[in-house]
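Lecture notes, part 5. Sequence design as translation. It can be helpful to think of inverse folding as translation between two languages: the language of shapes and the language of residues. The source text, in structure tokens, appears below.
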């Protein structure tokens, strides 16, 4: 395999690992040193959708935007249910 092929294979493996990340099923290596995982996520899947439907953000600007937009982006269940079912 050429050097380019090796690099491309490494990139593909990194991307696959980022896409497979599941916060509910962490590998021991993540607990020892989470930064390589964070780096992969920032590079390949910065707004990661977890298998449970939640989102895992890895870029500072994305996190700040979510915190500032509490009308559209909220974990408060009343925001979603109150208009449909009342207070």
């Amino acid at each position: 395999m050429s050097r380019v092929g090796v690099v491309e294979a490494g990139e593909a493996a990194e991307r696959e690992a980022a896409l497979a990340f599941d916060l509910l099923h962490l590998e021991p290596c993540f607990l020892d040193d989470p930064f390589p995982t964070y780096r992969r996520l920032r590079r390949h899947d910065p707004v990661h959708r977890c298998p449970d439907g939640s989102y895992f953000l890895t870029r500072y600007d994305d996190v700040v935007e979510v915190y500032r937009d509490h009308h559209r982006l909220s974990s408060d269940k009343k925001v979603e249910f109150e208009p449909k079912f009342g207070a």
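The translated text above is only one of many valid answers, since several sequences can fold into similar shapes. The first strand starts at residue 47 and ends at 49.
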